[in-house]
Amino acid sequence: MSNRAVAYVSTAVAGLTPTDLDHLLVDARAHNQMAGVTGVLLYDGHRFFQYFEGPAEGMERIYERIKNSRMHVQLHELHNGPVDHLYFSHWHMGCRLTEGSILQKISTQQWLHEVELLQDDVAQDAASPALRELLAFWEQPH
Ligand SMILES: Cc1cc2nc3c(=O)[nH]c(=O)nc-3n(C[C@H](O)[C@H](O)[C@H](O)COP(=O)(O)O)c2cc1C
After folding, report:
1. What is the Å distance from ligand 1's center to 62 Cα?
2. What letter does residue 128 receive in the DSSP assignment?
3. Which residue among 12, 14, 32, 40 is least enclosed by CB atoms within 10 Å?
4. The domain 3-139 is classified under which CATH number: 3.40.50.360, 2.40.240.50, 3.40.50.720, 3.30.70.100?
5. Mean pLDDT value of segment 77-102
6. Residue 102 Cα, ligand 1 centroid: separation in angstroms?
7. In the 8-state DSSP scheme, what is residue 135?
């Protein structure tokens, strides 16, 4: 079955508490596991960036849940397309609190070129600049 990946940024609703975020993640991880979806979520206290990947059918279901969530607004899609490689296959939804500058840097990369780049070469070190930026951040010690 073909795999897809989506990246987006959104703005958290005012008053979102750490407890809300915990509940959101518990809920998200349970649903992602059932759908075979993996990925990562970055949060700077104001904005979210999420990259998630998996089988097309599960992705559609999870993306609907995300779009319908009342916990954020102004969802702006950065990337949505087929992928040959799952980069976060061990994370049903990893989450890191980040500085705003890091979230900004990752979200302003050229995500839309992902599909074309991945069609040329599926090796991890040939991932797009945007994905490389995300992987570099994710793999550094915290
Ligand atoms: C930034 C963000 C990321 C989310 N990621 C996922 C996800 O990966 N999988 C999922 O099933 N739901 C995801 N959700 C949906 C939440 O799990 C859901 O919003 C939460 O359980 C509360 O539901 P409600 O907003 O409908 O009240 C996400 C929601 C937000 C705001």
Report:
1. 9
2. -
3. 14
4. 3.30.70.100
5. 93
6. 22
7. H
